[in-house]
Amino acid sequence: MRLNTPTDSTGLGALRHLRTVVPLAALLLCLVPSSAHSQGPSAAREIHVLAAADLQSALPALADAFQHATGIKLVASYASSATLATQLLNGDPADLFLAADFSYPEKIVAANLADTASPIPYARGTLVLFARKDSPLQPINQNTLLDPRVQSIAMADPMHAPYGVAAQRALFSMKLDEKLKPHLVIAQNVAQAAQFVESGNAQLGFISLTLASSEHMQQIGTYLRIQPDTYPPLNQFAVVMKNSAHRADAHAFLDWLLSPPIQHNLRNYGLDPVR
Prior knowledge:
The chain is an alpha/beta fold. The protein folds into two domains: 151 residues, 3-Layer(aba) Sandwich (D-Maltodextrin-Binding Protein, domain 2), CATH 3.40.190.10; 106 residues, Periplasmic binding protein-like II (D-Maltodextrin-Binding Protein, domain 2). The protein is 35% helix and 20% strand. It has 13 helices and ten strands. Helix 4 links the parallel strand 1 and strand 2.
């Protein structure tokens, strides 16, 4: 089953403004690399970031904190990691690619388009099962997927999205892949899978913890973490584009993102640190 809807919606688009970031930014002013300070916060400096859809509710808050500390603005576009990698391979301009796995940024490295010899790890993701609070399937638990009332389950397309691969592998590990295959609603990416559940086009959804733990989604639903041993680790990697005119600023953001205080705070956004 496949539904085609816009990749952004009023409900999920509102997720970008849900975090309070000023205290975090103030705390981390002293941690910004010196190169990021060189032109001062008054300079008009931007980084164009292609970001995996699971970051749609987390990256805006992190970007605001980084801009508050450095004056460098992140302009982000979101889609599945495969879609973004294809855009970059086809020559679309960008400064930084934040993927949801290793394989897609590795394609950029293999094409000699990245400025490092290998992708840079920046976070780890978590797969969850989400349902609206008004769902008759509440409270969701380990046996919810066995409930005969389950008729529709949203998940990202495993051909394009790492969270779709994780959901597919989890169903296989739980020996539910064949049983639930007729009920799967395939989304373009994990953010669209969340939209399907939010709008009622699906009863359940395999989505990222980043999306499920946002203020908006917590208001409308609840989630259950999928056992991590049922799917491959969602190690998320980045590359800076070799032809970017803003490579120093892109690396400054990655250095900031990998600093211990930021890594410690990633759990506030549904991500785990890389170490």
